[in-house]
Each structure stands twice: as C-alpha cells, then as structure tokens.
Amino acid sequence: MGFVQRLYKRLPSVSSALAAEEWKNEKPKTPSRLSFFRRRIRLKGNSSISIPLGFLLLFPSVVVFTILILVLKHPNSPGRILVPAGTPPSIRKISEKHDRVFATGCQDVLAAAEQPRANAAFVVLARNKELDGVIQSIKSIERHFNRWFHYPYVFLNDGEFEQGFKDTVTNYTSSTVEFGKIDPSMWGYPDWVDHEVAREGIRKQGDAAIMYGGMESYHHMCRFYSGFFYKHELLDKYEWYWRLEPEIKYFCDITYDPFVEMARANKTYGFTIAVKELKETVPNIFRYASAYKRKNNIKSQGLWEMFIEPQPEKQATSSDKRLKTLPNEILQTEPGHQNIEDIDGEAMEGEKYNMCHFWSNFEIARLDWFRSKEYNDFFDMMDRSGGFWMERWGDAPIHSLAAGALLAPRDIHYFRDIGYRHTTIQHCPANAPTRQLPRIPWLEKTTEDEKERKEEDEYWATPDTPKENGVGCRCRCDTDIRDVEGKEGSCFAEWVEVAGGYASP
C-alpha cells in the first residue's frame, strides 16, 4: 500500500494538467500603453520606498497649475483683469449721482498748466521747530502738483517765524510765499471763558490719557482751524484754500487743477480720507450740533445721514398699540413692565453720532462757505458750549457736522484719485488702466548731492501696476499700511451710501 500511495502523489493532477495546457496555448500579451507610467521609481538607489513614474511626472504640473490659478485670482494681480467675467473687481466704482472723479488717470499737465488759475492758496499752520516736516510736505506737493501750477503758500504761526525758517521754505518753491502771525484774539482763551476752569478741564483730559487732551496748544489749534483761520488777513484775498500739514506725503501726480475743477463742478468741500473720531474726545459734540440744526429748523439735504448711526427698522406689533401707562401707575411698575423703552443718553431726537468725519488735515474748500453767516452761527454755538476746553473737540468733526447740517452730497467731492498719507493713515488709489502718460522727470534743486537727487526722482519712475477701476495717475503707494478705504475705522462706506451707492458689483 505504501508504494501505491507514493506513486499516486507523483502523478500530475487534472487541474495542473489543464493549467499547463492553457499555458502552452496562451498568446503573449501586448504591453499596456500606461505600463510605462506604472513603473515604480525608487526615491534613492538603496531605498525600499518607490513611487509610480506617472505621479512623479504629474505632480510638478499640478503645482504649477495651482500657483497660476492663485496668481490670477489674487486681487492685487495685474493679470486678474484677464480672468473671465463673474469675478467682481477688487476696486468698486462709486455712483456718479452726486459726485464723480474729476480726472481718471493722467491728463496733459502742460496743457492744463496753461489754463487760468483759481484764486487760491495753500495754507500751512506751523512753528519754527517743524521745519523738517514742512520741507517734507513742500517737496511732496511740489513734485506731484505745484511744480506745474505754482499756487502760492500762506504760512501761519501763533509766534514769529524765524528768518532761517522763511529763507529755507522760500528756497523749496518757486511760488509766492507769505508768512503771518495769528492774532491773540484767534488763538488762546477767549475773554468770556474762565481761563483757570478751561485749563483745569485740559489737565483732567491729560490725566485721563485722552489723545492730545492734555496739550493746551492742541486745543488752541483745533479752535483756530474751526472758526478763525479763514478770518486771517492774509487769506482775505483768496476764494479757495488747500490745507497742508507738516510731515505729509502725496503718492500720485495731480495733472489737473483741483481748484478749477471744484469751481466748475460747483463743489464746496473736498476730502480724501474719512474716518471715525475717538469717542472719548467728543462725548457731547453731537448734542450741540443737533441742537443747532433743530433750533434753526434745518432739514437734512442728504449729507447729515453720513454722520448718524443707521436707524433699525422697527416692526409694529399689537402691543405697541396699547394705551400708555398713567404716571401714577408707572411709579408702581417694575423696570421693563409693559416694555417701556429705555432712553439712550447719547441720542438726540432719536439720532446718534457715528463718530465719522472728514479728516481735515487734507481739505480743499471754498472760503466763502466758512465765512458764511450759517457756518459762523454754527461755530459760535459750538464754541460757547465750552467743548474746545472741557472736551477735546477737533476741527475735523466741527467742519464735518457743519457740512452735514448745511450742505448736500452734491456739494462734496471725494478726491479718490489723490494719494495722501498723514501719520499712519493713508489713501492711495490704484492707477487707471490705459490712462497713464510718460512721467516728466523732476530733479529737485535743493538736494545738493547729485546721486541723491537722481535716486529721489528715479523712485517715482516705477509707478504701481494699473488695476481695473483704478483712477490714479502714476501713483506709487506706501506698502507698510493698508489703504483706509478697506480699513476698520474708515467711513468710506458711509460716504458711498450718501453719494448714491456703488455703480458696480
């Protein structure tokens, strides 16, 4: 039996025989077209890890494609305008219902400079110690505008200007320059206020760490710019003014005359930045501004709404129709009974100040508006309230609330095309596509070092890349801070609302 079993095991099985027969009859397979890409490649010569060759070839292509999509989609990419329709532009156009940009992109500045000038001047409030900041500002405005238009400067000071200050300033411009001293009646404490009480109010603001609140000179400056600068004798002969501050920068070439365009469009006041005021500096300013408006029965022309909090729509309910609680019954009820509404201590006539104002360190305006009876009545009421001493009222909210009460959106111009920076706040527009012209070099003569002069000029030879809906001319913006249009604390949205909304998505 053992011999038979061993012999049986050595015989091939039926299945093995069939498999062998099939193997003999099988035709050789044709290699797959993708077999090349399925070949595995070792990461290193002696590595046990391998990856398909197809993945190795495909991965770089995916990376390049992804980067290309991100670049085209990025809002700052010049190639973004090539993306098919459906993606909204990063810069939105504002309705031209009440206002429009005077010049989109660059104009023929030499032709514009040959046209008649407006009766206008730059106004600079400065002290001798601010000479370096004044030089910075003059160099900037001369480079970007006044080297072509040559508008005069009026410098004002509550003290005497030193001769060195005058000589240096005059050397930095080819325009006429006048220097004036501010009369004590326009600077300092008025006769009708208790000086010691006013000083104590300022000291308390300093103790409370209110920004500039403890600086007596700052209070004087705000009051002067609110109600007196336009009364100075050196400004009597002018119809327009452009305020210039020390240590400011302009970023774009202004190749048209803003004064002429303001007059042509029948504008009264122009701004380039609108932001919110610090609440602790003006806790009661709106109370008095609203009282002036109510006392004189002034109806809003559409601009006042820029400076008030939006009113939420209230749905009427059946409970609102019930009879009012009688006085004796009110005394006996608990707080909140019958939904008696709380009184907002900051609201006036149901309106509440949203802290917005035009940033007045840049403004171009008609002087006859400031000289008008309506504006001066407004200022006198605000002045008599004591807010310039007991609080830290600035000229910016004074100008803005006066404009809100007395003017309409059609009277205001937003200089969206002018790039401007003061301290850490800037507005700088994108350049307008297809509307840029060759730059005219300007080697500033007061810089003695020839290399430095050329470097200063060459910096402006490479403006920013134009973008869709851009309006600027040869702008080169600072990149260390965000534009105020998209920054928290900006009042750009409030301006757009009263100006008619957006014209594009």
UniProtKB/TrEMBL annotation:
One of its GO terms (molecular function) is alpha-1,2-mannosyltransferase activity. Belongs to the glycosyltransferase 15 family. It comes from Cladophialophora carrionii CBS 160.54. The active site is at E363. Keywords: Glycosyltransferase, Membrane, Transferase, Transmembrane, Transmembrane helix. This is Mannosyltransferase. The chain crosses the membrane at residues 49-72. GO terms for biological process: cell wall mannoprotein biosynthetic process; protein N-linked glycosylation. It holds the Pfam family Glyco_transf_15. One of its GO terms (cellular component) is Golgi apparatus. InterPro entries: Glyco_trans_15, Nucleotide-diphossugar_trans.
